[in-house]
Amino acid sequence: MKGYITSKLLKKFLVAGTALLIVVFGATAVYWVIAGDSYSMLDCLYMTVITISTIGYSEIIDLSGNNFGRIFTMIIAFTGVGILTYVISTITSFTVEGELKATFRRRKMEKKIERLKDHYIVCGVGQVGLHIINELYATGRNSVVIAQDRERISRLEERFPEQVYVEGDPIDDTVLKKAGIEKALGLFAAMDDDNKNLVISLSARQINPNIKVVASCHNNMNAEKMKKAGATAVVSPTLIGGLRMASEMIRPTVVTFLDTMLRDTNKNLRIEETPLLDSFEGKQLKDLNLKQYKNTLLLAVRTKIGWIYSPNDTTTIAKGTSLIIMTTPQERSAIEKFVLKNK
Questions:
Q1: Measuring CA to CA, how many Å separate 187 from each of 135, 207, 255?
Q2: Contact 165, 144 (CB under 8 A)
Q3: Fold for domain 116-241?
Q4: How far apart are CA 73 and CA 49, in angstroms?
Q5: Cβ atoms of 31 and 61 closer than 8 Å
Q6: 136: Cβ–Cβ under 8 A, 6 or more apart, which residues?
């Protein structure tokens, strides 16, 4: 929408500007013909400009007794003033409408953020941050982005037009609160600087002790410091990259399968974790009726004791059990609603 409005205004400006240039140079040429050798081309141009701009100086070119010249001047005055006014109004519209649109969009985002609950906050819009935002968007999870660099914000708006964001430094507690950290479910510290990720983890933990914090760590020596500062988990992009390269070499079919699964926009399958409430304790897996979800496959069950892989329908649900399932965002949401419904 923003690009459409900008393009429309730019087109109007180009049309008006072209018309104004035609009038200026056309009128200058006519005045030069009327004036003959008595006046220079600069005099003719000056005569055109003061006529169009209604400055009101005396005639540079003497048109006394020249009826054609005076009629032409009146035509140029009306035409030129109209076009010049249109150009000025277009420029004003371009500026004001852009500022108003930015103000309305910012206010709209603030209201939307105020209504969010159990959302995710992404600090940083670098390469890591963009991949996180893309995954949250693809799986239908609400998120708020915090970014300070205007160029990166523009890139974010271009790639994710509906994404809400807060402009500011994420190490500032005020900015974190604007992003709704007190009601957020999780936070990603995905800045390019480990020191900032450490401070963000510490601030997030102090403001919301229950929030889950995943921090990016570029130097493995800082991993333990981040955990002590408040990060729930620390991920090293270089370590993940190395493991991925090794997997490409020794298990290429598995990598191809996972890549295909992540890129399939039709089914959009993901491996998800769904915690079960204590109210399901003592029941069996068949009571969940997971078979009604055609695109859902139960891979494993995690309990406080350990893992149960490929569990059968008669497996008893214990306290603190989580399901590990391959499913679509839509069916994941339906399963989560079913779980919450049976509190």
A1: 14, 12, 28
A2: yes
A3: Rossmann fold (3.40.50)
A4: 11
A5: yes
A6: 120, 122, 142, 143
CATH code for the domain defined by 2-107 = 1.10.287.70
Distance separating alpha carbons of residues 29 and 45, to the nearest angstrom = 8
pTM > 0.70: yes or no = no
**Mean pLDDT over each residue of the chain, to the nearest integer:** 86
Domain ranges of the chain: 2-107, 116-241, 268-341
Assess contact for 59 and 47: CB atoms under 8 A. Answer: yes
Helix, coil or strand: residue 236: coil
Interval 117-175: pLDDT, tens: 999 999 999 889 999 999 998 888 999 999 988 888 888 988 998 899 999 999 999 99
Which residue, among 55, 54, 57, has the nearest Cα to 77 in the 3D structure?
A: 54
Q: Could you give the 3-state DSSP secondary structure of residue 174?
A: helix
Separation CA 200–CA 217 (nearest Å): 12
Residue with tokens 């001047």: 73
pLDDT digit string (tens) for 195-207?
999 999 999 999 9
Q: What is the pLDDT of residues 41-69, one digit of tens each?
A: 888 888 888 888 777 666 777 777 777 87
**Structure tokens of 291?**
């078979």
Tokens (6 digits) for 206:
């102090």
The dotted CATH code for 268-341 is: 3.30.70.1450
CA distance linking residue 180 with residue 176, whole number of Å: 7
